[in-house]
């Protein structure tokens, strides 16, 4: 006699998947002593893996915001946190000082971003990739969440009177990031070509290059 209990059917299917899976493939702590491949770092020998490999302690260290952006960005990715190697999760914590704290315009080509405000108040926004180039900007308070679609230019600034802290969650351990100001003016892209391709005068281009360490 057939048993049509749906709960038992679910258990059977789940057990089949479990039996067919390779438990050793459930994680791959990256071996940072070896060269990475396009799919990530080679796996650390399982015999050398310890519980400490799965603990990230960089967020408890002292914050340093003594820079031009008045911000501290600490990334938990496959390089800084090898347990994330090959997994579909990544995390960044950003601390910004009031009166000037900023994460300048940038993009993550490999993942959307979900911003969670831990402390203070920030303003975040992104520019659509449609013909309208619509800008969506929102002032966010403690406990609020903002989602930024994959690959779009976006930013965060501290818009309050106190230090702000926010977490950014990603759907990959290596979302990559390209920051617009240094990408445009922090290199040796010839100023004449920059003028022709952006409409910004050579004089202005050279001024911005001087600020951001570019040449040409």
Automatic annotation (TrEMBL):
Keyword Disulfide bond tagged: yes
Keywords linked to the UniProt accession: Apoplast, Disulfide bond, Glycoprotein, Manganese, Metal-binding, Secreted, Signal
Signal peptide: 1-23
One GO location term (cellular component): apoplast
Compartments where found: Secreted, Extracellular space, Apoplast
Disulphide-bridged cysteine pairs: 28-43
Residue ranges of every copy of the Cupin type-1 domain listed in the record: 57-206
SMART domains: Cupin_1 (SM00835)
Database matches in Pfam families: Cupin_1
Residues the record lists as binding oxalate: 108, 113
Main location group: secreted
Sequence positions that bind Mn(2+): 106, 108, 113, 154
SUPFAM superfamilies with a match to the protein in the record: RmlC-like cupins
Family to which the UniProt record says this protein belongs: Belongs to the germin family.
Protein name in the entry: Germin-like protein
UniProt organism field: Linum tenue
